[in-house]
Automatic annotation (TrEMBL):
The lineage of its organism: Bacteria, Bacillati, Bacillota, Clostridia, Eubacteriales. Residues 123-184 form the ANTAR domain. InterPro entries: ANTAR, CheY-like_superfamily, Sig_transdc_resp-reg_antiterm, Sig_transdc_resp-reg_receiver, WH-like_DNA-bd_sf. Signal peptide: none annotated. This is Stage 0 sporulation protein A homolog. May play the central regulatory role in sporulation. It may be an element of the effector pathway responsible for the activation of sporulation genes in response to nutritional stress. Spo0A may act in concert with spo0H (a sigma factor) to control the expression of some genes that are critical to the sporulation process. SUPFAM superfamilies: CheY-like. SMART domains: ANTAR. It comes from the Bacteria. Pfam families: ANTAR. Residues 3-117 form the Response regulatory domain.
Amino acid sequence: MSSVLLVCKQDDVIRVLADVLRPMNFQLIDSATSAGEGRRRLQEIEYDLVIVNTPLGDEFGTDFAIDISEKFMVGVILIVKSDLVDSIEEKLIDTTAFVIPKPFNRQLLVQNVRFVCQSREKFQRLQNQNRELKAKLDDLSIVFRGKLFLMEYLNLTEDEAHRYIQKKAMDMRTSPRKVAEQIIKTYGKKA
């Protein structure tokens, strides 16, 4: 984790939260005193974690948490009065935000911060894997289309078309996708 945004209207609580987080080696511990200011900061800087101490000056903080959970790839922890925890958790059921009761226990906060950070990192890895798989599927789709054009216009078998694309890619020192795209461009005009 490298950056955290503390959203709280009280400077003394921001200092306490920063003191708790400092030993966790965040590269940036930033603060905002309202949801509006927090939204502006999130537009400017990519934070890994946002901790919201409710209520805020311009809104309670629940809508802010929902909004940023939907718009940004950021972990969110809300600190709320203990008698509101259940109702706030219910409102945040479709988000990845965590709710901590206050007065908060330092150890509980640290555990939740670690959990949210680890979960975010795992989610990012899964997103990256998903993007890589999608790119591979796109490549396979383009290569398959290229093979279909070769089979149709050059009367090659699928194996021959496959070998043709692979050999061209090796000869040209490029990817099979690039070769297939060129084939599609060439023979697609005739279709």
